[in-house]
Amino acid sequence: MTNDTLLLTVAAFSVGIVHAILGPDHYVPFVAMAQARQWTTRATLTVTAICGIGHVAGSVILGLVGLALGTMVMHLETVEAVRNDLAAWMLIGFGLAYLSWSLVQAYRNVPHTHLHRHADGTVHIHPHTHHGDHMHLHESPGNHLLSKKIRPVRWIMFVIFILGPCEPLIPLFIYPAATTSDTMEQIIAIASVVTAFAVATVLVMTLSVFAIQSGLRKTTDMTLSRFGHAIGGLTILVCGISVKFGF
Fold it and tell me: Which 8-state DSSP code applies to residue 16?
């Protein structure tokens, strides 16, 4: 590895860290879904890592296609901007749909009381809800890590993150091809840049999710459990809006 490649690799790792930290959409959606659907920590981090890898892979594929076609960086960045808009709108749509569904479920699950009178004259009242099994999806220890309860949401989020661009990666990815004619050196430099950026991005995503999720589990008010799904959907909706409109 040449000195230029080493410096480029360090730069890619640093940019990957900043890129993930400054983008709340890299970790907030996972925390929101983990809290709402009561995913285990292991399942949450697995889903986060898979989506993070897909997130980087989408831009790597675009970069490889660009190199093969000899496309200029500015053209690739235009494509990345389109992907960013598409991913943001999908995040907004997912959050809005999930919020709407959860509000309907919360309304149907309003607690009420039942009066019971026994043959001996004893009368008692107990609280009761309907559709409770639709509102709380627990991960039992015996279940597979990515059970059927996780898979639908996991795939939706995976598709969104595949479409989500890694804008800072494109210039770093193209740079080796523009500065050297040695094919092997290009391959080594590109592989190093991609690996460093991917490791940094996934590492920040998983650590952020773990830290936030651990803190929320210690402070979450259980009286809000009926609206847990609604809060999760609203959080994703707000996150998507912030990505789209930049606030």
Answer: H
